[in-house]
Structure formats: structure tokens, C-alpha cells
Write a structure and sequence with these properties.
This is NADPH oxidase 4. It is found in: Cell junction, Focal adhesion; Cell membrane; Cytoplasm; Endoplasmic reticulum membrane. The chain is of the alpha/beta class. It has three domains: 169 residues; 91 residues, Elongation Factor Tu (Ef-tu), domain 3 (Beta Barrel), CATH 2.40.30; 152 residues, 3-Layer(aba) Sandwich (Rossmann fold), CATH 3.40.50.80. Strand 13, helix 15 and strand 14 form a beta-alpha-beta unit. The longest helix has 32 residues. The chain starts with a helix and ends with a strand.
Length: 532
Amino acid sequence: LGLCISRASASVLNLNCCLVLLPMCRVLLAFLRGSQKVASRKTRRLLDKSKTFHVTCGVTICIFSVLHVAAHLVNALNFSENYNEDFLSLNAANYRGEVRQLYLMSVLVPGLTGVIMVLVLFLMCTASTYAIRVSNYDIFWYTHNLFFVFYMLLMLHVSGGVLKYQTNLEEHPPGCFNPNKTLRQNMTVPKSFEEPFPDYTTEPFREDLPVAEPFVQNNFMRICSEEPKFQSHFPETWFWISGPLCLYCVERLYRYIRSNKPVTITSVISHPSNVLEVRMMKDDFKARPGQYVILHCPRVSALESHPFTLTMCPTDTKATFGVHLKVVGDWTERFRDLLLLHSNQDTEILPIFQQRRYPKLYVDGPFGSPFEESLNYEVSLCVAGGIGVTPFASVLNTLLNGWQCYKLRRLYFIWVCRDIESFRWFADLLCMLHNKLWQENRPDYINIQLYLSQTDGIQKIIGEKYQALNSRLLIGRPRWKLLLDEIAKCNRRKTIGVFCCGPNKISKILHKLSNSNNSYGTRFEYNKESFS
């Protein structure tokens, strides 16, 4: 039973160790998501579940690793207690009862590599919990990169050759009659060395000597022509993980070459509520609205890098792209201090000849995200919570440059913030887009609703500059069910794309409401972005 469970769990581990790498091939996913010919909308929505798929495979690996270890503990006892005197090459132990010295668990290659793999997996599993990721992302980042050590040990783990199979089944079928072995077992010892041995060649069988029952199949006796020979199984794990592992390594090499040249930082803007905007330029950089990049600054951390959604994409006439990042951790704090002359510097864009000497910054990407689909629906509902507005900023910037070439014909934009100052991050962008659509006689193209959950300092935004937004500012939290019912009523029998980037509480509510039925025949398709 232990051997069956260990082999079955090993097969499950092979499959999941193969699949867990595929969601981490970001370039491949971005290509599939951006290709209209390769992937349909349903396929692209499945690709958006890549993180969930990765987590599911990881949890499965942890569960079946525990089962695999428990089964091998039983096997260690069985291999020792059931020592085979007849077929010595089949034994994993050197003698009966060797398990007391823990030989199988501490000396053999499978035992050593297995113990180290369990320790590595334990570190990766515990550091991947939500509490660790939020409190100290560095721990999660460094321990998760131990996966390379895990795969190297996995390749060594399967090379131990503990399990064996018989190679000469034709010459020695299982259960066959071996006359030489039988004769040796029944041979009598002479009284003196001078007395010759009996001649068994002329009289091979004697009725007074007990012999083993011969193996009879279909009334024919099967005679063994030679002793059984055994050989270790060829490890099947190589077939499972070699392809995905090579694919991942090739992609990482491609990403390293692509991001090897630092970008040119054109400007740095400090926004209210500890938000920093970085605008950059890079040769031959192209991106679609909704995509994200990974920033790496060696002066901040030699190994650590973080993903940030593009808030401004390069166009045919302008090569500048940018990101907004909220200063909430050690990495962003050190990055801000390197970019700004002073931490409390006011918003300022210096001319080219006055720009400070910024640190080297490397950009890896762009990579795909669910928000690329927001322009492919006829009607889209975009819900942002706080800094979660960044994916929609690139969509709004794209619409500002021209909306006629996209399928989108109506956009509902809902932004929920705790303080009034947060709306200033993209207040100018919203006002410019609003005025542009009014001048083009399309005021109904975008429906903007701003919700302020806290009323402290509400008077700060009131002014002529943001008059278009003041009429759309609401106090309190959205009543999501009434809001979606109103949208469904205005768009009967249509498919509406729902995109959310914000707190999990808002995401769960929208996900539940999107899956519920309504009386207007409107279908809501839910999409969510999350880097946590």
C-alpha cells in the first residue's frame, strides 16, 4: 500500500510540477492574450486566471508532497523488514532491520534530496501566505526564488534508482522452475570431503528429497534458463518538467536581454497621498492599455523588482510611458528618496537641462492583464478603489487620443477613494477627456462617478478647475446592486465587461453580482486585477 501511494502521489507531483511553471511564462501569456487569431475572448479570460491556476498547482504540490513523504516512511520500514534473501539486488537496505539506523532516509540520494526539498517547499509555502506577502514582501520574493533549487533537487531525487524492474522476462518468467537452484537447495552434504557428490546430471530428481512446486501454465512447465536480472527504472520526471523548465529558462533569458538596457527617466512627479509618478522613454517600447511592467532599480535592491501598471502608454507621436506607484513599503520608500531631491518636494516637472541625475532603472515588459479587454466590449464597467485606478488611467489616456477605432461605445467609470486628495492623481485627465467628448457631441460615451468614503477635507477639491468633476462627486459608498441594475436596465440584452482593481471586499461583491441573473437579459462578465 505504501508503495502504491508513493507512486501515485509521485505521478500527481510530476504533473503539477510541470504545470506550475506555465503561468509564470509571462511573455507567452502576453502573446496569447494579445493575439486575436490565436485566442478568443473566452480563452483570454481563462488566461486571466493564471495566478489562480498557479496557486492551485502549488497547493496541490504541498498536499501530495506530505502524502508522498508519509508513504515513503512506510516504505522505509517495509524495505527493511521485508528483506529478500533470494533476490539481493532488489533490496534497498543492506540487511534486515537497517531502518533503525535511518540509512534509507539519510544516506541514499533520494532520502537526502527529499528532506531538503521538503524544507524548501515548507519555506516557499509559508512565505506565500497573505500575511507574509503584505507585512514583508521581501521574504516572499526571496523564498519563492528557491524554486530553482527545488527543481535541481527534484532531478537528483529521481536518479536514486530504488525501484527496479526485471529485464529478462523471456529467459526467466515470474514463477518459473529453476532446476539449478532447486538442486542446490536440496543437495546433501557428504560425510567427508573424500566422498564424492551425487551425480545429479543422470539422476536429477529423487522422490525422497523435497523439491519446489514447478510453475505450470497451460499444462506446460516453464523452465528458467538463467537467473533474474533487475534494472532501475528510468526516471519519468524528466519527461514532465524538462519542457516547461526549458521554456521558462528561455523566456527568462529573453526577458533579461530585452530589459538589459536602462530606460531614460524624463520626469518625476510627487502627487498627494504618497503617490509618485515616473515618466520614462525606451527605444522600441510598445504597450497596450491595461498592461503592466516590472521595475528593477539596482540601487534600491540588487534582486528585488516589482510590477506596476502602465498609466500612460507610448503612441505613434509620443514615446513617453509612465507609471504611478504608491509609497507603502521599504522598496518604494527607497525608490522615492532616490528619485526626489527631497521627500517633501512639491509637484514639479523640471526642464531637460535642469533634470537631476536619476538612478538606473530597468523595465521588464510589458505583460498582459485582464484590462486589455476593456476596449473590446461594447459596454464596459470599470471600478477602481484608491490606487487601483492605475490600470484604467492608461485606458482613459488611450481614449483621449482617439476612441473611434475601438469597439467600446460606452464606459462606466467608478472610482472610490478615502480622501479627497486622491482624486487629484488623475483629475486633469478626467476633465480633459470629459471636455473632449463634449466637444465631439458624445457626452454619453463615458459616465464618471466619484465616491468619497470619508468626508474630511472635502472643501479642498471644490474649485473652478475641477468643476466637471464636482458634479459627479458623491459622498459615501456605492450601492452596488442598485448600480448594476441601473446599468443593466440601460443596456438590455447586452454583454458588459466588468473590470475591478481594488480591495477584495469590493471585488467579491462585484463578482457575486456579476454572476447573478437580472430581469433585463444583460450579461456581466467579471474581470479582476491583483498583484497581491
